[in-house]
Amino acid sequence: MESEQGKAPKGRPKRGFWSVIQWIFLWGTIFGLTGVALVAVTNKAVIWSSSDSFCGTLCHTMTWSSAAYHQGPHFINASGVRASCGQCHIPYDSSHATATEYVKLLLFKADRGAKDFWYESRKTIATKEDWEKQRPKLGAEFESYTKAHNYITCRGCHSLEAFGGPRSRMKVLIHKDQIKANTFDCFQCHQDVGHVYEPQVAKVGGWYTNEQAASGATLYQAQCASCHGAKLEGGDGPSLTGTTWHQMYGGARLLTVWGEITGPMAQYAGTTYTTQQSLDIVSYLLQQNGLPSGNQPLADTRELSEVLPAK
Ligand code: HEC
Ligand code: HEC
Ligand code: HEC
Ligand code: HEC
What we know:
By secondary structure, the protein is mostly helical. Among the domains are: 110 residues, no CATH class; 94 residues, Cytochrome Bc1 Complex, Chain D, domain 2 (Orthogonal Bundle). It is 58% helix and 0% strand. Helix 3 crosses helix 4. The longest helix is centred in the first third of the chain and has 32 residues. The N and C termini lie far apart (116 Å). The N terminus is likely disordered. The chain binds heme C (4 copies).
């Protein structure tokens, strides 16, 4: 009997093979479903907290940037397609992110969220004046951040190899060098894409300096006059003054004129221009079309969002 008792099982009975499988299956399912639910909730929260209504209205601090966004080309445009706050400001798109990107996205959001919450709760930015004071710093921070990420959010929507419309060939040429070098600085040429704070009005003072226009005249006579005429009256290429000028550029931004010259026209003339040289040529054209000179040269491609007068 002794020996039989010794053989009797102690403690819990041993599981049968099938009950182990059942056990694994049950807990597996519970973990799996909880995981899915958590991911779904997290993702909902991620999407919601990147949405325009969250960023633009719930957060008091963002009131003014949100209003300025509503005046920008990513809210109002011909195609009716909008970019939302998160699509520009958050470097990873939650619906297309890889697992690693998703983790980075969560970390990014936690960091940003904590900062935003801190500022918001401390009422660091409570009035429009506070806001105006902080804006340059915040804007610059975002710019350098975006630059460091090689403008991934912008390029996620915009292909720079394919443009449609009347000036598409020129647009491709303009962006060609950046694609080749795989370095981008969209804000260098595209100001006010996200937020438009002041209504865009034509400059009333001077657009360029007389010295600049004189330097542009020299370049023009050497490289453009053969096709456009010594007095811009036209030849193989169209006239660049009077009615033709206004038809082409009335109401257009300076960026358009500059882009035309630095891209295809430099190519027609068989040369390339430095930014300064191409801006000098623009200055000359402005001068010949009666726009006043001043004491500030046209020195930076960031100044090219000015709109040319229609007449
Ligand atoms: C098309 C891309 C784009 C969209 C969409 C966008 N922004 Fe911006 N945002 C920018 C850029 C570019 C800057 C930096 C320079 C500037 O102010 O334009 C910026 C700057 C900011 C700043 C810093 C202060 C400032 O205005 O410079 C805040 C805050 C901000 N955005 C919040 C928002 C909120 C809130 C929304 C949605 C209601 C939004 N952004 C939508 C591109 C965008
Ligand atoms: C969610 C997609 C999306 C994102 C992100 C986005 N854009 Fe756009 N962008 C658009 C759409 C849509 C338009 C309007 C196109 C049209 O009217 O044909 C537009 C228009 C533009 C234009 C023409 C605006 C004008 O004034 O005529 C520029 C320049 C531009 N985007 C640059 C940028 C830059 C720079 C960024 C990054 C900060 C950016 N976009 C981010 C979708 C996007
Ligand atoms: C060296 C200056 C420069 C840089 C840098 C630049 N662009 Fe442009 N872009 C232009 C010019 C010039 C045009 C033509 C404007 C026109 O014809 O009205 C243009 C046109 C566009 C347009 C079409 C706008 C329209 O009205 O059809 C989009 C979109 C655009 N750029 C997006 C970008 C994005 C995104 C980046 C950064 C990845 C970028 N660009 C960088 C100069 C630049
Ligand atoms: C080989 C002849 C030739 C040369 C050199 C040339 N152009 Fe042109 N240009 C043209 C032609 C042709 C057009 C008409 C548009 C086209 O066919 O692409 C044009 C168009 C233009 C336009 C208007 C584009 C439009 O919207 O239709 C401007 C501005 C311009 N040229 C300026 C210049 C400047 C500035 C130079 C000197 C850097 C220059 N061109 C050199 C032939 C030339």
